[in-house]
Amino acid sequence: MSPMRIGVDLGGTKIEAVAIDAHGEIQQRLRKPTPAGDYDGILSQVVELVHTVSGGSSNITVGVGTPGSANPRTGLQRNSNSTCLNGRPFVRDLKSALGVPSCIANDANCFALSEARDGAGAGARVVFGVILGTGCGGGIVVDGNIVEGLNGIGGEWGHMALPRRDGLPWEPRACYCGRSDCLEQYLSGTSLQEEYARESGKRLVVKEMLERIDTDAHAKGVFDRFYDRLAESLVSVVNLLDPDVIVLGGGLSNVDSIYDVVPKLVHERAFSDLCTTPIVKNVHGDSSGVLGAARLLDHLHDFN
Fold first, then answer.
1. Domains in the chain, please, with CATH?
2. Tens digit of pLDDT for each residue in 28-73?
3. Rounded Cα gap, residues 55 and 42, in angstroms
């Protein structure tokens, strides 16, 4: 009998696990809070979730979408905004704890894979998936396969430097990766909330800022700059990769005005006299990442 496929989405605030059947339909789902800053706690939480959604079966394969990625030579986790994972052999420890075929991939890669397979990018040859949430990331899928690259950092768009287009006074923003002015510091939901707080002296979540956008000059300014910065950053993707479709995910992908404003800006600025690249919202919502993780077995080759 074919093994049950388990997917885990390891996020900064929650960990979600699902069991899917042969048709990709979710049979079991469970979420729990992420033990912030606690490596052993995160590992234990993942193991517990896998055990629960699988019903204790050992005839399973497990794929985990994580922030950052594993160094392809050392196997140590790196580049994660859940910094307690960095420098730790997460995939090795996971395999040891579970005792079943297991592997990990970047969470944005899992998102892109899911949307390329049967989501907003279905039928497209080259799909660029973007996560705009607590952090900011990207993933590339070509002909149905994740492009991880020689160094295992394919699609790490969130740590490219922000194109400086808006001409405003510039205060560099330090990033946890050790550099400054990474896209994540300008295009994530967290960054928008921090920007609003610096300018207004008040703290609002993104939803509250959107509700005030017609009456609050600070909120309008934050989003006007966000649209411009997102567009300019995606122009770089179009000029370099020229994907068939760009699919947005994460909490900010639910901001409907993005799809009215940003595609026009990208099409105007791309290095082409004709640019029709669609920029679309995901189909699978916040299940995209975990569904992609469950399907990693089909697209990666280091399960063992």
1. 4-110+287-298 (3.30.420.40), 123-282 (3.30.420.40)
2. 999 999 999 999 999 999 999 999 999 999 999 999 999 889 999 9
3. 20
